[in-house]
């Protein structure tokens, strides 16, 4: 192969990668501004490419979301490893992991719904990501259950869905600034073991009744 021929073959791949990166940058801004229901055709127009170019790289919305979440996945995995390494209290580690998942699930308005759907749609590009995080949640949960910090009947899948529900509440029309925090507290009281609940109550500051 001549150098000229090699250069011609490399150029389309370079251009395609440049287009892909540019589309992701534009989609990041578009979804941040309009939520994930924003039109993919509008993203293509904003990126200055044809709709066909966008769909060649990302055949559907889930594929685009999966690509956008990849960098956030790396941050979440880093946080997961930090919790495993630094937090000796298994129930506290589970709570911290669920908090980290909640931040990940609120990257864009409307994101919780396709994440929920991906749990039952093996063909979704988001499916492996969600299943992986359910597995991670199970690992944190089992450790807390062994130590008596979480109820034995609780499942990691349900905790993951609870995180998505809380993330959805943050953007709900009827929600206020305390709604997600209240729902998180209720969810935690549902999974925490009796010893953990008793410790939480005993550690709470005493407030005399006001009449």
From TrEMBL:
DNA-binding feature ranges: 39-58
Molecular function per GO: DNA-binding transcription factor activity; transcription cis-regulatory region binding
Entry keyword set: DNA-binding, Transcription, Transcription regulation
Ranges where the HTH tetR-type domain occurs: 17-76
InterPro entries: Homeodomain-like_sf, HTH-type_TetR-like_transc_reg, HTH_TetR, TetR_SbtR-like_C
Pfam family, one: TetR_N
Chain residue ranges for the region called Disordered: 1-20
Cross-referenced PROSITE patterns: HTH_TETR_2
Superkingdom: Bacteria
PANTHER family in UniProt: HTH-TYPE TRANSCRIPTIONAL REGULATOR BETI, HTH-TYPE TRANSCRIPTIONAL REGULATOR RUTR
Name of the protein this chain belongs to: Transcriptional regulator, TetR family
Organism: Geodermatophilus aquaeductus
